[in-house]
Design brief:
By secondary structure, the protein is an alpha/beta fold. Helix content is about 40%, strand content about 25%.
């Protein structure tokens, strides 16, 4: 897939580890380095307990690493206090969770408006933003409905519209289709692909579903707290140049030399 990323890094992890202390200490992430660019559509995949949810929490500044550095929009967070980290999270990141987390007594419009009310945005501007976000997910006709009157897929689209409230640079989605049927799942992923392409928002999806992962530009596989594989197109591009020069089963020394030249 074509990506217009202009090589602007929005998220960077450098040798990040997360150790959970306790009677039995558990190393959930082990020296992970990862760079994610503007407008990239990335899936993080791996079995239960692999560390992918821990990675998502760290990417979203919901937790801090035990060691290593996380940079968001070029700003390292290790030296920030909790209030500053919360500001970065509010301004840069929108979250979409498996369980929707909608307020059941509020209309679709009010659910999407809620984060904007908390941020003290003037009412006229708030309403403009809400209508725009509902339009982006195709739900302007459901603005006055309660969540209980919506399908699962529609509820998740409301959650996406709410995640867009503060015009984030990054959307982090944790198993966003986990509670949905296949048709609704496709709708949600279509929405996320469109946001990535049209709005140039970086979208990172944690999923165990290979069908969803295959829709993304890049798959990062986590296993035992480490990155087992990464289909980053920049790496593939270098590997492709090597294979073009020497063939897939070419001379080992020649391939090594080609890698040195192109990488």
């Amino acid at each position: 897939m074509h990506m217009d990323r202009h090589h602007e890094t929005v998220l960077k992890l450098e040798k990040v580890s997360k150790l959970y202390e306790g009677a039995t200490p558990f190393l959930a992430l082990d020296s992970v380095s990862l760079e994610i660019m503007k407008g990239e559509l990335v899936s993080i995949i791996g079995p239960s307990g692999s560390g992918k949810s821990t990675l998502l929490h760290l990417l979203g500044c919901l937790d801090r690493p035990s060691s290593g550095e996380i940079s968001i929009g070029g700003r390292g967070i290790s030296g920030m206090n909790d209030d500053s980290v919360a500001d970065v999270r509010r301004d840069m990141i929108g979250f979409v969770f498996q369980s929707f987390n909608l307020a059941p007594t509020l209309s679709v419009f009010k659910n999407v408006e809620l984060p904007l009310m908390i941020s003290d945005m003037p009412k006229a501007e708030r309403q403009k933003v809400v209508w725009r976000n509902l339009e982006l997910v195709g739900l302007t006709d459901k603005a006055n409905n309660l969540p209980s009157q919506l399908s699962g897929g529609q509820k998740q689209r409301v959650a996406i519209a709410r995640a867009l409230a503060n015009s984030p640079k990054i959307i982090l989605a944790d198993e966003p289709t986990g509670n949905l049927d296949s048709k609704s799942s496709k709708e949600i992923i279509d929405n996320m692909v469109r946001l990535c392409r049209d709005e140039r928002i970086t979208v990172i999806i944690v999923t165990h579903d290979p069908n969803i992962a295959e829709r993304t530009d890049r798959m990062v596989r986590i296993m035992d707290g480490k990155i087992e594989s990464d289909t980053d197109e920049r790496k593939r591009s270098r590997e492709g140049t090597v294979n073009m020069l020497y063939g897939t089963a070419g001379n080992g020394a020649g391939k090594k030399e080609a890698r040195r030249r192109v990488g």
